[in-house]
Amino acid sequence: MEENYLINYQGVDVCHGDLVILHNVQWKIAQGEFIYLLGKVGSGKSSLLKTLYGEIPVEEGEAHIFDYNLSRIKRRQIPLLRRKIGIIFQDFQLLADRSVYDNLVFVLKATGWKNKQEISEQVLQVLQQVGMEHAKYKFPHQLSGGEQQRVVIARALLNSPELILADEPTGNVDMETGEKLMALLHEIHRAGTTVIVATHNVRWVELFPGRIFHCTTQKLEGQKSTDIEDESATQTEEPSEIEEIVPDETSNLHSALSELEEQAESDSDTKPSEESISE
Ligand SMILES: Nc1ncnc2c1ncn2[C@@H]1O[C@H](COP(=O)(O)OP(=O)(O)OP(=O)(O)O)[C@@H](O)[C@H]1O
Q1: Contacts of 264 (CB under 8 A, 6+ apart)
Q2: Cα–Cα distances in Å, from 89 out to 175, 192, 254, 262?
Q3: Where is this region: Disordered (predicted)?
Q4: Which residue, judged by its Cα, is nearest atom 18 of ligand 1?
Q5: Which residues contact residue 231 at a Cβ distance below 8 angstroms, ignoring those fewer than 6 apart?
Q6: Which of 36, 40, 43 to mutate to test the pocket of ligand 1 (most atoms within 8 A of CB)?
Q7: Predicted pLDDT of residue 228
Q8: Could you tell me what percent of the chain has a pLDDT over 90?
Q9: Which of 47, 66, 67 minimizes the C-alpha distance to 58?
Q10: Ligand 1, closest atom to CA 251?
C-alpha cells in the first residue's frame, strides 16, 4: 500500500534550474530498508538525495517522504523534515574549534534540546553506538579520517532519525576504514533505521546487502531508477538502469550541513545562542 512507503516518488523530475538531471523518477522505499544509490560521477545521486531533504525543490511529479509532500512542502516545514533525517557526507565537516563532545552538543542544542543531563546522555549514547566514546574530548584534527567519519555518523544519529542518508560516506577514507564504516551503517540499518547510501563503490554492495538503484548519466532525460517489486504499482513507465560505475573521489555535496544548522537555528523558537551553547 502506498502509505506504507517511507519514500514514494512518482514521475519526479530532479532539476537544477532548467536542467533536468533525472527524469520521471519512480522510487519507493519502505521503512527499514538498506538502499544503494549507484551511478557514475554526475549522474544525479546527490541531487536525488537533496530532493529528499528539501534542498532541491520538487516541481514535477509527486514526491512523498514521511508525511510530507515534497512538491507542496512549506519552507517552515523543511527544518522539521530534516530533523527526521540524519545526513552523512564524504567530507567530515566537524567543527574544528571544538571537541567531539561539543560538536555533538552543538547540534542537539541547535535542534532544541535543553536539559543538560539529557544532552550529555544522548551524546554519550551515540558515541558508544559508533565506538567513539573514548574520544569525546578530542578535537577533530586529533582523529583519523575514519574516526572523524564515525563521529559524523554519531552526529547523524543524535535525533534518532528514521532515515539516514549517506552520500559517498567512504569517499575520503581507505578501503579498510571504509569497510568498517559501511559495516557500522549496516548495523544501524539492522537496528531498524532506513539507510540510503549513494556511492560509486560497488564493492560495498557485495559485502553489505541492500536493494540497488542506479542513476543514469543522461543529462536531460532517460533516467528512471529501477523500481521496487511492487505488485500494486500503477505507473506505466518502465524502469531503466545503467551499469557503468566509475571511481571518483570528488563529490561536492557538503553545503547542506551548514544549511541544516542554519535551518535548524532559524526555525527553532527555542534556538539557543552561540553563547548559551558554550558550557
Ligand atoms: N547546484 C547545481 N547547479 C547546477 N547543476 C548542478 C548543481 N549541482 C550539481 N549539478 C549538476 O547535476 C548533475 C548531477 O550532479 P550530482 O552531484 O547529483 O551527481 P552525483 O551522481 O552525485 O555525482 P558525484 O558522484 O560526483 O557526487 C551534474 O551534471 C552536476 O554538474
Answers
A1: 79, 82, 83, 110, 111, 271
A2: 16, 21, 6, 17
A3: 220-279
A4: 44
A5: none
A6: 43
A7: 37
A8: 61
A9: 47
A10: 27
Domain 2-96+145-268 is found in CATH 3.40.50.300:
yes
Q: Give counts: helices (H), strands (E), the chain.
A: 9, 9
The reply to whether ligand 1 has any atom less than 6 angstroms from the CB of 171 is no
Query: What sign does the CA torsion over 177, 157, 202, 58 have?
Result: negative
Tell me the average confidence (pLDDT) per consecutive run of 10 residues in the chain, 279 residues long: 79 91 90 91 91 94 95 92 91 90 95 94 96 96 94 95 95 90 94 94 92 70 36 34 30 38 45 35
Residues 6+ apart with CB under 8 A from 52: 7, 65, 70, 85, 163, 165, 196
Q: Ligand 1 in contact with 223 (CB < 6 A)?
A: no
Ligand 1 centroid to residue 46 C-alpha, Å: 7
Residues 6+ apart with CB under 8 A from 1: 232
What ipTM does the predicted assembly reach?
0.95
For atom 4 of ligand 1, the residue with the nearest CA is 16
- The bridge status of strand 194-199 relative to strand 34-38 is parallel
Ligand 1 centroid to Cα of residue 269, in Å, is 34
pLDDT at 92: 72
Taking the C-alpha atoms of residue 229 and residue 269, their distance in angstroms, rounded to an integer, is 43
Check if 201 has its Cβ closer than 6 Å to any atom of ligand 1: no
Nearest to 125 by CA among 101, 106, 99, 149: 101
3-state secondary structure 122-174: HHHHHHHHCCCHHHCCCCHHHCCHHHHHHHHHHHHHCCCCCEEEEECCCCCCC
193-219 per-position pLDDT tens digit: 999 999 988 899 999 999 988 887 653
Neighbours of 97 (CB within 10 A): 9
